[in-house]
Amino acid sequence: MIDGTVYDGSLKKYIEKSNNWIGENQLIVGENFKVLRSLEQSNIGKVFDLMYIDAPYNTGNEDFVGKEKGTCIDSWSEMIQKRLEIAREFIKKDGFIIMSIDDHEIANTRTILDKTFGKENYVATFVWQRRDYFEGEKDISFEHEYFVSYRMSSESKVSKRVSTFIIPEKVLSVSSYTRSAGNKEIITSEYQNEAKEEINKRFNQEAVTNYPKPVRLLKRIFEVFLKIDQDNKVLDIFSGSGTTAESILRGNYEHNKNNTFTLVQMPKLKKDKVYGSVENLAVYRITQTMKDLKMNKKLHVIYSE
Questions:
Q1: 6-304, what's its fold?
Q2: What is the pTM for the complete model shown?
Q3: pLDDT digits (tens, 9 = 90+) for 73-108
Q4: Where are the domains of the chain?
Q5: DSSP characters for 2-51?
Q6: What is the pLDDT of residues 125-167, one digit of tens each?
Q7: Residue 125, H or E segment
Q8: At what angle do helices 192-202 and 278-292 cross, to 10 degrees?
Q9: Any residues with CB less than 8 A from the CB of 154 and at least 6 apart, and which?
């Protein structure tokens, strides 16, 4: 099933044995805090150009209580903070961080990112209308999500001039909007339910994710922050079904690039689904995308202790 290397054991030993692990496309299966600590102990240095974070949203339906080195994690904010404090050490001085979030934690997200990366390094918040229908019986329907971006330093330079308002493709087709406004580009996207229908269709209605980000949306946002004149390395520590990977691969195909990714996904069983787990779906999705695009690439899957 996997066209590449499967390694089961110490992530640190894998890095030591690999001749060019940073130039490979990888999916690391393991609890992301432990994986980040392993990367820290391996002294990998600042190797990533972009970090994308799409953590579980704190909607009140999730339980974020856990234990890390004997310390109780009793809040969503603390869970995010602890991971960012380690992960920031792996981002290049001219790199960027993007975090997806909704209205529940947008204020806390800005506070956490200000504290971790410096308020002066805030870049912009992109606004995405993720659906075009009213939410249940509520008086006010929350239809937007956000992509909050920060730079590592003043050396970080974006690659495009863009508007922070992401226009739904259906609206664009019937309105006076154009894909460019003056010398600024307009980012467009399909709705989230369309993205879900697309991934379900590709995987015989067996997709194990309910709220996927549209591939084209991530591809277009990444293009704002990835360097044009070199290949980039992207880190995603909440990788889910592998949307980041597919976005990178399709961007490579479109622009003749060789950007690579390192994904981290906790083992998550879905016994009622054909693929059995989120990470298995990600493996299939990534390798199938490589085949569809006729890429001579491999996915290296590391099952971290």
A1: Rossmann fold (3.40.50)
A2: 0.89
A3: 458 899 999 999 999 999 999 999 999 999 888 999
A4: 6-304
A5: -SS-EEEE-HHHHHHH-SSGGGSEEEEES-HHHHHHHHHHTT--S-EEEE
A6: 999 988 877 766 677 777 889 999 999 999 999 999 999 999 8
A7: strand 122-129
A8: 80
A9: none
